[in-house]
Fold Enoyl reductase (ER) domain-containing protein.
Amino acid sequence: MTIVISKSIVYREIPTGLPIPDQHFQVVSTELDLDDLALEHGDFVTKTLYLSVDPYQRSKMREPSIESYNSAYELNKIMSGGAISQVIQSNNPTFRVGDYVTGGSARWEEYSVIRRAQASQFRNTTDRIHQVGLPLRHWLNVLGGTGLTAYVGFRLFGDIRPGKTIYISGAAGATGYVIAQIAKIKGLRVIGSTGDDAKVLFLMETAGIDAAFNYKKISVDEALSEYAPDGIDFFFDNVGGETLEATINHANTHARFILCGAISGYNQSDEERYGVKNLFKVVSKRLDIKGFLVSEAAPPFIEDFHREVVGWVKSGELVVSDSVVEGIENTPKALVDMLQGKNLGKQLVKVAEEDP
Amino acid sequence: MTIVISKSIVYREIPTGLPIPDQHFQVVSTELDLDDLALEHGDFVTKTLYLSVDPYQRSKMREPSIESYNSAYELNKIMSGGAISQVIQSNNPTFRVGDYVTGGSARWEEYSVIRRAQASQFRNTTDRIHQVGLPLRHWLNVLGGTGLTAYVGFRLFGDIRPGKTIYISGAAGATGYVIAQIAKIKGLRVIGSTGDDAKVLFLMETAGIDAAFNYKKISVDEALSEYAPDGIDFFFDNVGGETLEATINHANTHARFILCGAISGYNQSDEERYGVKNLFKVVSKRLDIKGFLVSEAAPPFIEDFHREVVGWVKSGELVVSDSVVEGIENTPKALVDMLQGKNLGKQLVKVAEEDP
C-alpha cells in the first residue's frame, strides 16, 4: 500500500459576485492507494505539477442554463483548467512514466487517474519541452493558452504597420503583458493600462512599452489624451465597459478593436454592467470590432506562434512573468486574486515538484 | 430682365434636440435676374427639381468643433444635400441646357449658379437617365446614395448563404426598405422593425419580407424571440441603442453586424444616449461589428450595383417607395418628419417640374 492524500478543489455554489473560497469552492482531501488503482489498458496516472488560473474559469461558474462558448462547471464536481502534469504510472504506451502531460481540462487535484476514454484530451509534450529547453511553467504561460491568445489576437488585427499606436487594457495580465511585448517587437507605439503602480513600473521598465498608467489614478480618457494625442489605431481589450467607451472616443478612423475579454463585468449582473453610450461612433469612425476565441482563430497561426514566441523568449526580447502560489489548496484564492487583478503576468499554482 | 424669386433654406442655429423649422433653419427668398448672371466660362445655372432629405444632415447641424466623418454645416449659410437639377443656362460645354445634373452637395435653393470651380462636384447624368428609363426621382432613392448604401452594406456582410436570418432596424426607411428587399431577393429570411403599423403592412405586403413589427408596440427582444427563434445571423442597424443591445442578445455565434446609422441617438446629447450593457457578448459570441461609410466602401461594388438594382427595379422584384413633399419651403419640415420616422421609403422634396 502506498497511500497518498490527494487534495482537490470542488465547486460548491454559484457565486453572484466575486467567488469566496470555502463557500463557492471547497478543498476536499481523498485517500488514494497508488498500489491499487486497477489500471486497465490505456489508463495512466499523473501527478499535477502546475495549474493555470484564468478569467474564463469565472465565466464557467454560472447557471448552466445560461449559454456561452464554454460549458458551465457542474456543482459538486472537481473544477478543471489548463495544467502540466507528470506521469507516475501507466498502462498507456503513449504516456510513459516520467513524461510531461499538458491539457486544457485537467482536474484540479493532486493525482489524476486518467482513463483511456479521456486520454485524447491530453498531449505528451515531453519531447517538445526538452527540445525547447525553457522552464516547465512557461508552457502554461507564454507558450500556452494565454500566450497563444496574445499572439493570435495580435495577428487578427491584420495588416499592422510600425509606427501605429496600440492600446492594451489589462496590459499586465497573462495575455496583456505578452501582447504588449509582441506589439513592441513589431514596431508599434504601445500604451497599456493596469490597476496598480508596481505593474505600471513592470510594463514600463521590464516589458519596455511606451506608456503605462494606473486606471485607478488617472481615467482612461485623460491618459489617452496625454499618451495618444494622435489617437488609437488598434485596441486589444481585456476589460470592456468604461474602458471600451473611452477608447472608442480616442479611436482613429478605421481603428480595429479585438475584444478578448470584459473582466470589468465578469462579477456583475446584467443590470450592474456599465452601458456604453457612444456606439454611434462605431459608425462615424468606421470602426471594425471583433470578438474572438483563441481555439477557433488559432490554427493558421500555430506554427508561426511556436517559432516566433520561442525565439523571442530565448533571445530575451520577450520577458516572461508569472505570479506563482504554492499548494493546490490555494487555487481558489489564486483565482479570486487574479479576478481582482492582483497577479502580475500569468497566475499559476505550483502543486508539486517534478520528479527528477 | 427675367426676375425669379429663388427660395433657399438657411441654417440659423445649432439644435440640441429635434431641429425646429423657422428656428434652426429659415426660408429665405432672394430675387434673381436670370438675364443678368454674368456667367463666365465654365459656369452654369440649374433649376432644382428634387432634393434628398437624409439623417446625416442632422449630424451636420452640430458644433463645428466636434469632429466627424462629415463637415458641420456653417451657420447662416444655405444648407446642402443630394439633388437632381436641370440646366437652364450654361457657359460650360459639359452641362448643356436641359441636361440633368446630380450631386451630393447641391445647395437647398431653387436656382443655383454653379461656378466653374464647383462644377466638378456635379455629374451630368442625362444619358444614363434616358438609357435606364426609370422615373427621375428614383435617382435620389434606390439608384442614388441610399440605394447604394443598402446595396454596399449588404455586400459587406461578405459570404451570405440563403436560409440565414437577417434583421434590419429602421426597415421602412430609405436604406432599410431597399436592403430588406435585396436580402429577400438573395434568399434570406428577413425580419424588419419600424415605428408605425402602416409601415409594418408595407414591409409585409409590398416589400414582401418574412416578418415585420412595430417596435413601439412590441419590444425588439420579444419580437426577435418570436420571429427569429433560431437567432440572428446578420444585422443591418440604422437605429443603435436599445435595438443594438437586444439584437446582441439574439445574435448567433459569429453573427455579422453592419452598423449604418444610430438614428435613436441623433437628437440626444452624449449623456442622454442609451448605454449598451451587454458588449461582453461580442466576445462570447465572437461577433464581427463594422461601421461603414458608403463613399469609402462603394467603389468595388458600383458596377454590380447599377446592373443588379436597375434589373430588379425593372423586373418589379424591388419595389420603389418614397414620401414626396412639394415645395422647397417644406424641406425643414421634411427633415424633421424624417428624423421622427414619418417617412415611408425615401424622403424627397419636389421643388419644381422638369422642363419638357
Observations:
- The radius of gyration of chain A is 21 Å.
- Residues 145-302 of chain A form a domain with the Rossmann fold fold (CATH 3.40.50.720).
- Chain A has eleven helices and 15 strands.
- Chain A touches chain B at residues 59, 68-69, 240-241, 244, 253, 259-262, 265-266, 270-271, 273-293, 296 (CB under 8 Å).
